[in-house]
Amino acid sequence: MNALPYLKVGVYFLLILALTKPIGLYLERVFTKEPTFLDPILAPLESLLSRLSGIDPKKEQGWRAYTAAMLVFNGAGLLLVYAFQRLQELLPLNPDHLPAVSPALAFNTAVSFVTNTNWQAYSGETTMSHLTQMAALAVQNFLSAATGLALAIAVIRGLTRAESKTIGSFWSDLVRGTLWVLLPVSLVAAIFFATQGVVQDFSGTALVKTLEGGVQKIPGGPMASQESIKMFGTNGGGFLNANSAHPYANPTPATNLLQLALIFAVPAGLTTTLGKMTGKNRHGWAAFWAMSIVFLASTLLAVWSEQRGNPIHHALGVDASVGNMEGKEVRFGAADSALFASVTTSASCGAVNAMHDSLTPLAGLVAVLNIQFGEVIFGGVGAGLYGIFVFIVLTVFIAGLMVGRTPEYLGKKIEAHEVKLAMLSVLVLTFCILGGTALGVSTKAGLAGISNAGPHGLSQVLYAFTSAAGNNGSAFGGLNANSDFYSVAVALAMFFGRFWMIVPIIGIAGSLAAKKRIAETSGTFPVDGPLFVALLVGVILIVGALTFFPVLALGPIVEELLMQAGRLF
Amino acid sequence: MTRSRAISLFDRAILSRAAVGSILKLHPKAMLKNPVMFVVEACAALTTLLLIPGLGPKGLIGFQLQIVLWLWATVLFANFAEAVAEGRGKAQADSLRKAKTETMARRLLDRKSGEEETVPSSVLRKGDLVVVEAGQMIPGDGTVVEGIASVDESAVTGESAPVIREAGGDRSAVTGGTRVLSDRIVVEVTSEPGQTFLDRMIKLVEGAERQKTPNEIALDILLAGLTIVFLVATATLKPFAGYSGGSASVTVLIALLVCLIPTTIGGLLSAIGIAGMDRVLTHNILAMSGRAVEAAGDVNVLLLDKTGTITLGNRQASKFVPAPDVTEGELAELAQLSSLADETPEGRSIVVLAKERYGLRSRELRELHAAFVPFTARTRMSGLDFTSGRKVRKGAADAVDSFVRSLDGSFPEEVRRDVASISGEGGTPLVVADGNRVVGTIYLKDVVKGGMKERFDRLRMMGIRTVMITGDNPLTAATIAREAGVDDFLAEATPEDKLALIRLEQAKGNLVAMTGDGTNDAPALAQADVGMAMNTGTQAAKEAGNMVDLDSNPTKLIEVVEIGKQLLMTRGALTTFSISNDVAKYFAILPAMFMATYPALGTLNVMHLATSQSAILSAVIFNALIIVALIPLAFRGVKYRPIGATGILRRNILIYGLGGILIPFAGIKAIDLLVVALHLA
Predict the structure, then answer these.
(1) Which side of chain A, N or C, has fewer Cβ within a 10 Å radius?
(2) CB neighbours (10 Å) of residue A550?
(3) With a threshold of 0.80, does the pTM exceed it?
(4) What ipTM does this complex have?
């Protein structure tokens, strides 16, 4: 057995483990407005923004006002991104003279970038002008991530406060998240990427004659600046269609590792922030380990499956030692691609460095299941934390009863209202994924997009709606999603998967903030330690993912069984 | 009493009535209260319709019929569990009615002639006059209109020393349930009778108009949410099956749905709640609502009155402290003499101590040629008058002081010091005099009830802090608190202090339980999260609390706390069990549904169930039977052990979580073998 791929997973995990605490503590300082080393530069900028907008960052909002501000802000972003795409023909920085994007696709893309999904039913280099990429898409990469971050902090504040009407200021959280967290790291990472060979210019597509006499189109544009936030904001929307498999986007092993690290940086760090802000460091680590256990299990399974390769290929005399190389960038190989696939789906990022459509059915299952867990295995920036918050609430409720007390989470009683809102957000994901997939495989328009027969076709549609509803944005690849049906259906799944999830969660935070804090005793349900971690994992698996078992059985599971039996689709 | 109220789980009359009840409960309007079981009933009805030729799938009519029957059985089993629980509640109400004991009151018919009649206290009306004499219980709240008496109000105030109540002035109010120790008084009843707590409670139990508790509502929402999730999961399976080139019959999809939704907890939820109330009643406690019992499980501070709860209600002699030149034996003998005819608990304890310590046997008064002088509020002494003229007295230091002075004796300085030091240690000194000679002091002290320390340790393990409330001075309080092992105490407590303490604890985020029985306690009982009033207490106290203990035993609050915890634990455990069961059910039904389309999915048939039909049938049968199998657990409740939250959780997770995953694998397999053996599928 080749141990190296597993070793790489281990090294990557240790890197994340080392980053979690410093990042988490920094985030805590930023959002509790404690001094940081960036204040001399950023504080004047913040007060300038405050003066320009006329918004007092010290004025706190209740959960309703906070949510309303978030919705209005994201609504405005949606319109802006749509407008940029439709008008790009008339606007500057369009060296290739790309035409306006079609209404359905523009709507799909606008929703996609505002919801931090970055589902791309288009090829960036042949659809979007440099201006659209920079001023519309990249801006949303920052703002959608900052929105997620703000919401996660608001949820934590709900836990830390008692008998409080407010959960913070959305505007202040948004600004601080962008200025203190997203911008500086993205800037440094972009410069590093440029040194490694990632393109950063304003040139158009160059046409080059190849040695064979053919013509190759070589794209140019501001890529490095977009790559860094694409990963750090867990957005995943690439400048280029090939995303992180393209040598211009991800040229070296160093950039590949940095991209992987950027994906998990904030989501992992937020677990420490949770622990620090609530004064329960062990609880933060419990959340971290619950995420880690699921992540390591699913990643190792994917790596193992990819390493094992496809028995049908082996029977044809393909070298078995390199694993499943179908749909891979040769520079990365099977194992690194499997790690990337698992990280990007766990974290709601959606950037890819291999073709997920060509993963072994088992690795494909891991990818889709990682999203179906609810994007809580580290999850998106902020989204992962508020996602696991829902599962914690459910765990505390079900298991909390078993210790013989009204369930309470960090001193706050979990009652009918919170359970209702938590179930609502669980329902949204189920509805969008299963409902959307059912629609896809039972309508003519939906079936038209499927490129493979049998269970693999089902997997393609399932993956599309799972990715959309989970705000992941990665694609299986085989599905032709640039049709009116998929543009609209997937956009709706993205929209509801994001906002219908967020509103109930902020509702819970608001209600918890308003509650009295109950004293902790030896009879209180413990939210740290191995037992709680095991329970949380159990609830994520059984409540979160068991619903999808039937459709997975008809998709990737049966496909894997049939592949082992020598049949492909 | 406590035993006799427990009703057998297999009471024939209740079971047969419940069998009828479970069918009556099929009315959709009644089912709508329980969303999970309502869905099952709708499914059963739908599959029944599909049996009509032409409407449903063709073929396998025997299989379909069996599914239909088992679906109805699932609903009936759940209804049966609820009906049995309700039946047991009704039976409790009947036994309650019998258990209602009454104090007898001597009602004055004519104040002048003194003519009286004996009537039950429950018929006393406002304005009635009653006579109460030494040793009798005051039958209701009232005002003394004639006489003076010493009254033991320890049950009300927590103060064990008797108080004086007399006509006129502001010491005229007496409380029902308190005992007259000496003299005779006439009391005018001031509270309107009839509406006793017991009467109201019986109506509550019988009315069966049970309100869902907040926690039950929250759980209902979770279960309804899960039901919708699985509804979506099974409904979408139809198009998925269609795409895959197979078919999923509606009957089979419904079978899958019913197996996946949490029917086990859904079917037993209301039975658990009713049975919890029932268990409270078994302990002779009336809870005004399920909410109160649930709140008891959450309590983390327990306020207990010292007297009657932590200590025996009355003080007991623990030591003889002789005066100079007097031997301990001599003092013991004189103390015993003075107490021979004293029927107060204190007096008896002196006789007992003399016998235990000095082997002095009690003697007959007649042999001694002496007459007993009982304690009165005026003299505050009791003792013996010998025919020889010798007088032996015991009593409060100042009373004895004036007694010996009247006989030209003097009160020795040493004895005065002993008296002071006993008071300082929290005891009560009783000075004994033989004629004009002071012979020594009897040390009376509060005696902590046996086993209290263990109970408080148990409470601590449960995460509950105990605070002792007493009217004693801080020194006395500290001594007893240490001896009893309580966590904290509130000394020289007035009712206002009590209320303030509850508010303070609540502000700190604690849930407070307390017991009380005095009118004074009413505000505190109302403020506490759980207020248990004693049945001997005043009407005002009973109105203010949310529980009444018929046995008037305050330590039973501990049992209520455990029942409250059990109630929540049982719900949580069965919910966990129910959800964990789904894993095995998937593995039974999914391969059965799709093996025809994809034979490769046979790999998932890990239980090696015989055929598709037998697999589905077995899962449905298991799902129905598990409800019946768990009825006893729902009634009994999951056992509570004070081993801390982590310990309990680990235990319950192991049994109901892990067990919930594994048991159905074995169960479904066993049923499958049986189904095949009986040629049912």
Answers:
(1) N
(2) 25
(3) yes
(4) 0.93
